[in-house]
Amino acid sequence: MHLNESKKVLRNSSLFSDLSNIHLDLILMICEEVNYQAGDIIFHQNDPGDALYIIARGTVEIILEPHEADKEALVIATLHQYAAFGETILVEEKGRTAGTRCQTATQLLRLERERLLALTSDYPEIGFRIMRRMSAELVSKLRIANQKIRDQTLWKSASSTKAAT
What we know:
Number of helices: 4
Structural class: alpha+beta
Shape: globular
């Protein structure tokens, strides 16, 4: 991928959208392009987190992996071009909260955790802007998850009430 194309991916990603061109150039210096085929696993749930990713092309599924080998993974989100994922590794080093699988052939920009943290240490404004955007995204994801839980709980509750009558 050409540098200008990679910069466009960063610019259109919500995590990096409000960074200056100079800051984007600094981020580009630590980006790595990686490619996957449809069905490839990028990382598994509970894997150690060492990078965050931005989708340049393709579609990625966020999956919850079952404990039993004979059961299928549950797709909890489908992400498209410019979406970022794996960003929680900037906050904590615990294992991944979910797995990721490519739905289509996928091209990603990979930002290694240690290199990004070093960059944000040298340029605190970059770190502040990324963390502010990441916090907003995580709050949005939490709201969506909470709503899904409410909907499922209310649906189950309503179904139980109807079945009892």
